[in-house]
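Good morning C.,

I know you're traveling, so I'll keep this short. The sequence:
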Amino acid sequence: MAIPAQVQNLNAEQADGNILLTWTGVLGATSYQVQRSTDGVNFTNLAAPTVNKYLDSLPGNAIMYWYQVAAINGSGTGPYSTIAQMVAANPGEMSLYELRLRSQETADRVGSQFVTTPEWNSFLRLGCYELYDLLIDSYEDIFSDQQVFIQTNGTTQYYPVPNGTSNYLGGNYNGVTGTPAPKLYKLVGMDLNVDTSNITQAWVTLRKFNFIDRNRFVYPNSTSTIYGVYNMGYRWMGNQINFIPVPAGNQVVRAWYAPILPALLSDSDVTTIGFSGWLRYVIARAAKYALDKEEGTETQNLTEELGFLKARIESAAQNKDLGSPDRISETRSDPLMSGLGWGGGQQAGFMIALFPIAMAHYSGNHHLAHAVLSTQGLLGYAAFGILFAYFLYFRRREFCRAIRFPKMFGLHCVGMIVASFSHFVSHIVGVRAQE
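The C-alpha cells, ready to paste straight into the viewer:
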C-alpha cells in the first residue's frame, strides 16, 4: 500500500474564537496529522483526527495561525497540504486578514493584483468607518462609554479635547502618567461634580449652550459658578471645549464621548463593531470600492446589497436595550416635585422670586389689611388686587421658570397666595369684630 496522496483544499474558518479546518478526504487515509504554527515556518503537531475536519477550540484571539494537514495510513504519512491561515476573533468579529479575504471572494478577485493589498486594506478601513458612523447615528450609546476628567483651575475657560496621543494621560486633563485617552470623535455629554469632598460623588448634567448665548450667564465681578444659580454650560468648538462662565477652581468635569475607531493595520488586528453579521457591510463596501476601480465593471448588485444592509443595521441598532427602550427623559428629576431639576434654569437664581413671596405672606397682609380698614380702603383693595394678580400670574410663572420646577410647584405657589388672601380676609374680619 502506498502512502496517502497530498491533502487538497485545506480551508480555515473562524467563529466565536474557534478555528475550523476542513479539507477534501484522501482515499485510503486512516487519520490525518494537523500541524499549527505561529510564524508560518515552524510547525508542531496539534491533533490527529480520523475525519477530514478539525476544530481548533479557542486558540487565542488576535493571533495569526498557520495550518497544514497530511494524510496517514499504515505505510506512512503523505505530503503536507498547502498552508491555510486564519485569526480567531471574538463572536461576530473578524481580523483584517479575514475581511480582505472575504471581500476578495465577494469581488471574485482572489489572487488578482489589479488591486494591491494596501489598497484592499484602505478600502476595508473606509468600510469600517462607514459602519461605525451607521451604528453611532442609530444608537449613540453603543460606543459612548469613554470618560475623561477635567480639573478646573479657576482661570481657564477653554480646555483641549483628547487627541489620542499626548494629552489626558490616564484619562485626566492634568494627568502626568498613564496611557493617553483615545481621541474624541463624538461628544455625548458632560457632568459636573458638585461634591468633590465626599467619597460618594454627586454628579449633575451640564447643558450645551447655543453659541448666541455665550455671554448670557457671564456675570461681571463674580467668580462663582454655583451650578444652581449660574447654570454652567459647555460647547465643543474646534479642538477645545468652552465653558460658560469661566469655571471656578477645583471643580471636576466629566466628559462622556465616543472615541475615534482604531484603524486595522496588521493582518491580526481584530474588529470591534461586528455584532450580528454587520461586517458584511464592510466586506461588500470594500468589494465595491475595488470593482469601481476597474472601468466598466458592473456593481449594481453590490449597491443594492449595501442599501439592504444599511437599512437592516440601522433598524437593528436603533436601540440595543429591548427590555428598557430609550425615551426622552428628564435630567436629575426630583421624586417629589418631578421636573428637570438641576440645570434646567433660564434665570440667574430664584431668590428674587422668593423674596416678594415671603414679603407678601408675612408683612403684606398686615399693611394691606390696615389700609383697607383705614379711610384709604379703596386704595388698599386696589393695591391688594394688583399684588394678588402679580403673584398669581407673573411671579408664579417666573419662579417656575427660574429653576425649571414643574407646574406642580407653581400650583404650590398659587396655594401660598390663596392662603395669604384668606389670611388677609380673616385679619379684616377679626379687626371688625373687635371694633
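Safe travels,
E.
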